[in-house]
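Hey team,

Filing this mostly as a record. A colleague (T.K.) asked me to run one chain through the structure pipeline before their review meeting, and I want the input and output archived in the tracker in case anyone asks later how it was produced. No errors, nothing strange. Just documentation.

Input sequence:
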Amino acid sequence: MADIFVSYRRGDSAGHTGRLVDSLERHFGRDAVFQDVQSIAAGRRWDDVIRDGVSTCRVLVAVIGRDWLTTAAEGTRRLDDAEDHLRREITTALARDIPVIPVLVDGAPMPAAQQLPDDLKPLARWQAHELTDSRWEYDTGRLMTMIERTAGIAPAIAGRQAQAQPGPARDRRRAVAAAGAAAAVAAIAWFAWPTSTSEGITPSEPSGGTAPAPTLAPTPAAEIAPVRFDGDWYDEEATHWSIQVRQDKVEINHTAPGTGTAIGHAQGTISDRTISFEYVVMVPEEPRLNGQLVLSDDGTRLTGVLSDMANGGNTRVVLHRRTG
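Output structure:
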């Protein structure tokens, strides 16, 4: 299984999590990172795969957005549900005494112990790391260094060099089968988805000691593409998304492939590499969704989530820039 397990709540931080996973995979390799959307193959029970993933990983990265603490279902805070998948992911990692790194995004504060259920209170003792849109490359670089030092996970380039050296073969991680993310959907079939930065990272050393940090080969810094949202995009259902930007305002038109039939439209605002918008589905009831899309570092992908204002359902969205 993967060494790095990324825990997050889709309606809270899907966009930032997708961008973070892109950065982690470039540095450590795709097989080293577990994210539920891309790491669960069709035909497998997601709860079994997640349980196995968090039970065998070497570090858990808990992505915390502004709504992580307060997200509710049917009037009850989801963290107060002992069966909540996110709560179970983190408590399993805490019980295993492996490094847990709270990663704060979108200006979220670190939750205090008194705000958490009893079995989650130990999370408050782990030093948090903040990711900001304006310093993304710097912040993620420091996070990767923390992961290398605390969990002894080498970058992908260092791993390849180690494998090339003579000597006994090293055991490697078993690859997690990757499922394509069925993210954006066409027309009414939309709602398929169920509903203080610090150099330090651990207040206490995991039992058995921390694995020694490997000798790391230098990795070149990834180039960050300029921010550009304008243009034509497509999702994994081949539907078309046209994005137009006027100063800090954005207009989105979503149409079916071939026919050009309108599926939905949206208006919103831009902040750094993030679009926030209200999406209207083109059906008689005109349900409205809150949306957020984050531009990837290379500028070729938008990743985010649509949240139903009425019932709280979430749909992950992955858009690819159309070229040529």
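Quick notes for T.K.: The longest helix spans residues 10-28. The CA atoms of residues 270 and 277 lie 9 Å apart.
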